[in-house]
Amino acid sequence: MPFQPDLTYSKLDPRLSASCAPTEVLDPQWIAFNDELAEQLQLPADYRATAAGLQTFSGNQVPAWAQPTALAYAGHQFANYVPQLGDGRAVLLTEVIANNGQRYDIQLKGSGRTPYSRGGDGRSPLGPVLREYLVSEAMHHLGVPTTRALAAVATGEMVQRENALPGAILTRVAASHLRVGTAQYVLAFKQRDLLQQFADYVISRHYPQCADADDRYLALLDAVIDNQAALIAKWMSLGFIHGVMNTDNMSLSGETIDYGPCAFMEAYDPATVFSFIDRRGRYAYQNQPAIGSWNLARFAETLLPLIANGDDTDGAIAKATAAVENFESVYERYYWQQMTAKLGLTPDTANAKRLTQDYLDLMQQQQVDFTLAFRFLGDADSNRLGELFEHSEAWQAWHQRWTQVVKAEYASIDDAKTKLNRTNPAYIPRNHLVEAAIKEAIQDGSLALFNQLNQVLQMPFVEQDGSLELLQPATAEQAVPRTFCGT
């Protein structure tokens, strides 16, 4: 199939987006290019890791197939409503039909000021670009729905934050960049026709199965709730902390979007927070399901005029409320599917949920690394796992219980451990390693660690010779307890 650029969203009401060319940069240089993703998008060879590709993904030249556009949206940021946010440092180049038949956005992030910049410079420092590239690609290979990184380019210019930092641009690919905050922005116009046009677009693009439902907009709400419940359950099963779950950072497609102050938890503690700006722990690991539900309630509010269909407001509120209240049970179902699978079990296995919760409690009591506690369950012997728990009596008692359950479920313990090693990753983008790669790139101009991490994280379930040190959690001296969004 040929490359098929086809921008559809900007053909909706002009108030929802603005034509906006990227700002040229001084001296673009390649950082990384994702050939596998380019192949999926059927991107012409001329625009891959080439001179023309460098000019395109730095924003210096706009190819004929691109129609640069910044999208408008609103959002609740830490529960405070902001009526206009929008792409303040990003432009959508185009939409494209990939070789799987799905539509994707191709967006430049950090490409200069837009009509929604609100006084910002529209640029990105190098650090956040490297972080999003590594973490979003790692999430993809971990099996998490996510935006992806197509390219990263250094700009040859400095970006002024607290200090002057080298600048960079990320090319991000997403099923779309439509957010709960986008729906909030549309609702604020108080025009039912516009809201219906937007909702119908979301259905057509992401949830075509809802088109023929008796109440297509209630079906849309249910579909978004289901996708978000499944997504957050995946986050929780990996110890991932998004860090800034504002409504403008919740994608209607069900993808993880906007990797700002995100990180993966190491020592298991449900109250873990990484984001420097999350001083009250609103977006702590343990709060992510509840915040997801809160955000979905805001999305439900945007659909009320359509669910009511002009007359039954109380009925619409009741239906939407019931849908949002159902999030908890839907999430719990996905959560236990994910978490019991990490023990090689299913939620229906006798004592599986109890075993899982007891293991988490034991991990918390002994401050054991979340990723390795599950990964080492798949070892041929239990020595590495026992060392994590210092061979404590509590761990030995739990391990004996688990072994008995697994032996009853599998033909052999080896079969169970083979399955476990396909479920529990060996590698995650550990915060200290990501920060070390950023520091090396900024201070030394070297991408050696970035490239090593990028390669290893493409195969997170395989322990790779020469990279076993990348399994290990941070030492006290290496620990990076806070992350920053880089805006």
Helix content: 40-55%
Question: What's the pLDDT, averaged over the residues?
Answer: 95
Order of helices and strands: EEHHEEEEEEHEEHHHEEHHHHHHHHHH
β-strand amount: 5-15%
**Structural class estimated from helices and strands:** alpha+beta
Characterize the quaternary organization of these chains.
single chain
The whole-angstrom Rg is 23 Å
Low-confidence stretches: none
Please tally the helical runs, counting DSSP H or I stretches of 4 or more residues: 16
Characterize the largest beta sheet: strand count, sense, and whether it forms a barrel.
Answer: 6 strands, antiparallel
Question: Between the first and last Cα atoms, what is the distance in angstroms?
Answer: 38 Å
The shape is: globular
> How many β strands by DSSP?
12
Count of the separate structural domains: 3
